[in-house]
Every structure is written in C-alpha cells, then in structure tokens.
UniProtKB/TrEMBL annotation:
<dbReference type="InterPro" id="IPR036188">
    <property type="entry name" value="FAD/NAD-bd_sf"/>
</dbReference>
<protein>
    <submittedName>
        <fullName>Dehydrogenase</fullName>
    </submittedName>
</protein>
<feature type="compositionally biased region" description="Basic and acidic residues">
    <location>
        <begin position="367"/>
        <end position="383"/>
    </location>
</feature>
<feature type="region of interest" description="Disordered">
    <location>
        <begin position="365"/>
        <end position="390"/>
    </location>
</feature>
<dbReference type="Pfam" id="PF07992">
    <property type="entry name" value="Pyr_redox_2"/>
</dbReference>
<feature type="domain" description="FAD/NAD(P)-binding">
    <location>
        <begin position="192"/>
        <end position="311"/>
    </location>
</feature>
<dbReference type="GO" id="GO:0016491">
    <property type="term" value="F:oxidoreductase activity"/>
</dbReference>
<dbReference type="InterPro" id="IPR052541">
    <property type="entry name" value="SQRD"/>
</dbReference>
<dbReference type="InterPro" id="IPR023753">
    <property type="entry name" value="FAD/NAD-binding_dom"/>
</dbReference>
<feature type="domain" description="FAD/NAD(P)-binding">
    <location>
        <begin position="4"/>
        <end position="125"/>
    </location>
</feature>
C-alpha cells in the first residue's frame, strides 16, 4: 500500500525536504507539500533590499510544479496538526492524513509582544527588515534622514539569523555614507551581552570591534520593555531610556500557531533530536526555525537558513527510514556558516561546528570581497533552483 509523507511549509527547509523525499521514496508514495502561498525569499535577500541593492521583485521565490516534479503542492492555511491521529487540517483545502510528517513552518513575527511597537510601525517612526516589503520601506526612510539617530533594536530572543541585526547596522551606515559621519548616528541594541553569543565571546567581540571601526555603537544586555512612538524612546528592563529618530527593529518572534498546535513543545517551539530531527511523536520530524534544538552547552541552535537546509535532507532520510525504506542514515552535524555584509563590497564569514562539545567551535574570518561574492552566489543558486511559476 502506498504511503503519504506531508511536508508543512515551503521555505528553505520545506522545499529541500520535499525534493529529497521525492528522491528517496518509491514513485507510488505521495509527497505532499503544504504552504499558504508558495512565495517567499531568502533572509539574506531582505538585507540587500534594505541596502537598496535589490528590489522585492528581484528576490521573490515562487516555485511551481516544474521545480518539484512528483510533489503534490497544496495551497492552504494550516489550522492544526493532530500528531495522535496523523492528520493535518488545511482549512478550506481539507485534511491530509500522513504516514510521516516533516514540519518546516518557520517562525512568525509578533510585534505586539513589545508594547508600543505596533503603533510605532504604523506611525512610520519604526520599520522592520525581516520582510522584503518592510526592508524596502525602511530603505526609503533611511534615505530621507539628514540628522539624528538610527537605532537597530533586537526586541527579544530568539530571532532568525543571529547576524542579521548587526549586518543591518553595517548596511544602514553604508547607505548613509557621509551623513553617517556628519550627522546621523547608528547604534545597535540587543538583550544579549554580545552579538551572536552562541558562537562564543571571541566572535562577539570581533563583531563589536568591526562595528566600532565603522563608527557604529554597540549596546549589549539591553532588554526592551516598551516603545513610545510619540516621544520616540525605548525603555529597557534596567530602567534606562534611549531616544531614536528612526527605529530599525527585529520584531519579537513567535512559533506559528500551527506548530504550537502539535503540543510537542511547551512554548510552541518544537524540541527535536539534534542528530535525527525526530520529535517525541512517532513519524514526525521538524526542521529549521520552528524547532528548539539544544546544543551540548544547553544553548539553542541559531535559527538560520543554512541549518534548515542541512536539517531538511536529514529529516527526509529519517522520515523515509521510519517507514521502513533503505534511505541513507544521515545525521545533522551542526556545521554551518553565515556571512556578515559590511556594505563596502566585503563580508566577514562566521563558520564552525555548532554541535561540538562542550561548546560550539566557531571562528569569524576576516572581511573579504570573496565572502561577499560567496553570499551573492548563495542567492543566485537559490533563485535559479526554485524561482519558477511553471
């Protein structure tokens, strides 16, 4: 009897998992990929939209059937996941029963979790760069500044792409050009003591030094508690208040309601086995930003596309094996890299082994034009592979 494997979410993890499942499963088995729109983009592309190097249209990914031959694509909003009954409620698109399931639903943005932030966004005194449209709007606002202070704020943790806020600060300063040195300050604030704390203090301190060399202020250990859009101020848990003229914010992140409906994680993030991506439910695997994957030192693995892609191949293989097939017994190793764009045609590269014991072994390599080109090639490869409406 044929089997059905469902993949939820058509981001980096979901697309990769669906394609790999189709490779390893028998032709008579169904691979069903569910997404609300089948349109998206890479996170790195949003930062280039922020800088003005891309438009939203240039970085939109819209995979069609020709990109996923043999995969059934279902457009629908996932209303709930019943892991006991092995069913996915896709609302108006009906229910899908499954024999194995890969959850790749990502993380959502929840501005309302920081009091005053929705009003600041509506008033135009704040903008976000985690969507391509938001990044494009923020780019326009930055271009109109002649003086004042741009505050890049990490509202809370966890959030997608640990380098993104600091990369945004570099790119904003680069866009400002002479105005940055002559009248517009750029400062980065985060609840963490250092940038990218999971990578260790050497990497964090190296990024602070890079920011200092570009005239960008860094303020660690600053947990925001509220935004006053009229006074243009941020209050912090330590009782301090900081003023801004334009707020470039990483909004609070939250697990999707669909992922939370599984009941697999108390906070909505789904705990997984670090090596196999298996959850506590039989036949259910989860990858990418929807997961809570703890490293040997007890800290969570950063939410980043490079990890979602690697995890997706492992989850596809393990899902097939859970159905009794002789698929490769691959394991997630925690090896990965990310780039920090500096805005001058060069980028630094953080890379290492995040599942190393007793703590991640990560280094930040010196900025280079070659790393900038590597990052551009990542984007080109992804757009070429998936961007088809056919």
């Amino acid at each position: 009897m044929s089997k059905t494997v469902a993949v939820l979410g058509a981001g980096v993890g979901g697309l990769t998992a669906a394609a790999e499942l189709r490779n390893v499963l028998p032709a008579e088995d169904r691979v069903v990929l569910v997404d609300r729109s089948f349109t998206g983009s890479l996170g790195l592309s949003s930062l280039w939209v922020l800088r003005g190097w891309r438009t939203p249209e240039q970085v939109t990914v819209a995979p069609g059937p020709s990109a996923l031959p043999g995969v059934q694509m279902v457009t629908g909003d996932i209303a709930g996941i019943d892991v006991a009954e092995r069913k996915v409620d896709c609302g108006a698109s009906g229910q899908i029963g499954y024999d194995a399931l890969v959850i790749a639903l990502g993380a959502g943005l929840n501005p309302a979790a920081l009091p005053g932030l929705p009003a600041a966004l509506d008033a135009g005194v704040a903008g976000e760069f985690y969507t391509v449209d938001g990044a494009a709007d923020l780019h326009q606002r930055i271009g109109k500044l002649e003086s004042g202070r741009v505050m890049v704020l990490v509202a809370s943790t966890p959030f997608k792409c640990p380098a993104a806020p600091f990369e945004a600060a570099f790119l904003i300063a680069d866009q400002l050009g002479d105005k940055h040195t002559d009248g517009v300050r750029v400062d980065a604030f985060t609840p963490d003591p250092l940038p990218m704390p999971v990578a260790g203090p050497d990497v964090g301190n190296a990024l602070v030094e890079l920011m200092d060399s570009k005239g960008i202020g860094f303020h660690g250990g600053k947990a925001a508690t509220g935004v006053d859009p009229n006074a243009r101020t941020i209050t912090f848990a330590d009782g301090s208040t900081e003023k801004f003229d334009l707020l470039a914010v990483v909004p609070p992140h939250a697990p999707t309601a669909a992922a939370a409906s599984t009941g697999l994680g108390s906070a909505g993030w789904i705990p997984v086995d670090p090596a196999t991506l298996a959850t506590t439910a039989d036949g259910v695997f989860a990858v990418g930003d929807s997961t809570a994957l703890l490293l040997p030192n007890g800290k969570p693995l950063p939410k980043a596309a490079i990890f979602a892609e690697a995890q997706a191949c492992v989850a596809a293989h393990q899902a097939a094996r859970s159905l009794g097939y002789d698929a490769p017994d691959t394991r997630f190793t925690g090896e990965g890299a990310c780039y920090v764009e500096l805005g001058d045609g060069s980028a630094a590269k953080g890379e290492g082994h995040f599942l190393a014991e007793p703590a991640p072994q990560v280094q930040l390599r010196e900025p280079s034009p070659d790393f900038h080109e590597e990052k551009q090639q990542q984007e080109r490869d992804w757009l070429t592979r998936w961007n088809t409406h056919a």
